[in-house]
Design a protein that fits this description.
The chain contains three helices and four strands, in the order αββββαα. By secondary structure, the chain is of the alpha+beta class. The protein has a domain of about 50 residues. Strands 1-2 form a two-stranded antiparallel sheet. A two-stranded antiparallel sheet has the order 3-4.
Length: about 100
């Protein structure tokens, strides 16, 4: 009798549904000029995230290593920027077509 009472008690408990835990999807990372690693278009120094300054030239924002470089870029943009706004010291894709 004791065994049958135990079996009845077990049968009353429904099995728990299987639960699959998944990690939440990583949100996309959006980096601003201040957060991204950059190279100063004037002096060529690497600018660490959160370092340097920002200047606006021809409607584009550029990261520069310091105020002197920012002033130089604003005063002489053709010396440091290509016509499309790319810094002249930026790495170019040199693969042949």
């Amino acid at each position: 009798m004791l065994v049958s009472a135990f079996l009845v008690a077990l049968s009353l408990h429904a099995p728990l549904p299987a639960v699959t835990l998944t990690a939440p999807a990583e949100p996309p990372v959006v980096m601003t000029v201040a957060e991204a690693s950059a190279v100063c278009p004037v002096c060529g120094k690497a600018i660490a995230p959160g370092e340097g300054s920002k200047v606006m030239v021809r409607g584009h924002e550029y990261a520069v290593s310091d105020k002197g470089c920012g002033d130089e870029l604003v005063a002489n943009p053709d010396k440091y920027l290509d016509a499309d706004g790319t810094a002249k010291n930026a790495k170019k894709d040199t693969k042949p077509m």
